[in-house]
Design goal:
Helix content is 36%, strand content 14%. The chain has 418 residues and is an alpha/beta fold. The structure holds pyridoxal-5'-phosphate (PLP).
């Protein structure tokens, strides 16, 4: 265990011995109440890397200089753009490069994956998911179920925390799968729960589902770039995530998709098709008859949105430089430090994120004065994140949060209500 101290000196020492501390200089920080913000909302919208502006400029200049020929000329010929991201994105989620493709936005990709991997029959049609999933995921599941002619009330099995608890117990997840296996077509979970910050055991959930031949998919919106992932080894069937949370790729930024290698060459799988997923060597023959490209690339519909992809590429380069292993090590330490600071300056706060199952996020369940506390933090230049009905989320993301930032959160808390 770490032994921490609530002092500026101690926080400064941690920053000095932090091998990742220089990455902070690669980001732009917003102003809050007239001062540079202490930014604890990288779980919601990551900060802008300074390198993004140049990366965009490269594409704008190529557009200026080459026009349509930019697809095959220029610095990063656009025809191949998605491929420039594969290896970088694959490292974030623990995948083989051909198992990953960057395209579209998250909810769109979730639906595209459901088209291929939610194949209900009269007997096996249910979806097991966590209760209180991010609303977009709930809507996606409900509408998919209805699309196939089933009733969400019957077809969606939600696993909720036990009475008086905030998080799911692994044993309850496994038991629900055991009990409903014969009727279940899909298990769909988040990697990290957006509200509580609970990180689920992706490998265990996957292998339990596979015991019964059930397809298992994950929404990694809050997991990608946050916790260590090893999707290929864990044998996950498919996964989706977004680029703009921990991955710092800008508002509305592109999303990533993982499709396991075992589906790489399965043209028989039903899918919604578009020209960009067509076998690359024949894409411009403009012929009838869809032949999917090998791997996850075969799920693409449209040509790459190069400007948002350029942002994502620049951001992933920073992640690859830092390395997920080192980032997660710091994440654990700085999140523990935040927990320590919260407990020592405001012991009345109820942190509901489980200590042993989390990334860099603490969810604080507040009572009547939650909004007041949130506003007090803002007055002290701290940008945390308010989630209805009554949770404040704080994410000390390792790329750009300093231990001094965390110490300052404690300073602010110690003057709350005084
Ligand atoms: C952030 C988030 C979304 C957002 O979906 P978009 O399609 O990117 O707007 C969806 N699902 C989860 C679990 C999220 O955390």
């Amino acid at each position: 265990m770490n032994t921490f101290e609530n002092s500026e000196n101690f926080a400064n020492q941690l920053d000095e011995s932090d091998s990742l501390s220089h990455f902070r200089n690669e980001f732009l920080f917003p102003q809050l109440k007239g001062k540079q913000a202490i930014y604890l909302t990288g779980n919601s919208l990551g900060l802008q890397p300074k390198s993004v502006r140049d990366a965009l400029d490269v594409e704008l200049k190529d557009w200026e200089h080459f026009g349509v020929d930019g697809h095959f000329s220029g610095t990063n010929p656009w025809f191949h753009y998605h491929k420039f991201l594969n290896e970088k994105a694959a490292k974030i989620v623990g995948a083989l490069p051909h198992e990953v493709v960057v395209m579209n936005n998250l909810t769109v990709n979730l639906h595209l994956m459901m088209v291929s991997f939610y194949r209900p029959s009269k007997e096996k049609y249910k979806i097991i998911m966590e209760a209180g999933a991010f609303p977009s995921d709930q809507y996606a599941m409900e509408s998919q179920v209805r699309f196939h002619g089933f009733d969400p009330e019957d077809a969606i099995i939600e696993i909720a925390p036990r009475k008086g608890e905030h998080n799911l117990r692994m044993e309850d997840i496994l038991e629900t799968i055991d009990k409903n296996a014969d009727k279940t077509a899909l298990i769909m979970f988040s990697g990290v729960q957006y509200y509580t910050g609970q990180a689920f055991d992706i490998q265990k959930i996957t292998s339990k589902g596979h015991e019964y031949g059930i397809t298992v998919g994950f929404d990694l919106a809050h997991a990608a770039g946050n916790i260590l992932l090893d999707l290929h080894q864990w044998d996950v069937d498919f996964a989706v995530w977004c680029g703009y949370k921990y991955l710092n790729s800008g508002p509305g930024g592109v999303s990533g998709v993982f499709v396991h290698d075992r589906f790489a060459n399965r043209p028989d799988l039903p899918r919604f098709a578009g020209w960009w997923g067509h076998k690359e060597s024949e894409r411009f023959l403009m012929k009838k008859g869809y032949i999917p490209e090998f791997g996850a690339a075969g799920w693409q519909l449209s040509n790459a949105p190069v400007l948002t992809m350029a942002v994502h590429k620049a951001s992933l380069e920073i992640f690859n430089k830092a390395g997920m292993q080192a980032l997660v090590e710091k994440s654990k330490k700085i999140t523990s430090y935040l927990e320590y600071i919260l407990k020592s300056t405001a012991p009345e706060l109820n942190i509901i994120t489980p200590a042993l199952e989390r990334g860099s996020q603490l969810s604080i369940l507040t009572n009547d004065n939650g909004k007041k506390l949130f506003n007090h933090l803002e007055m002290n230049h701290i940008l945390a994140d308010w989630r209805e009905p009554n949770v404040i989320r704080m994410a000390p993301v390792p790329l750009y949060t300093s231990y001094k930032d965390v110490y300052c959160v404690g300073l602010a808390l110690s003057t709350f209500g005084k």
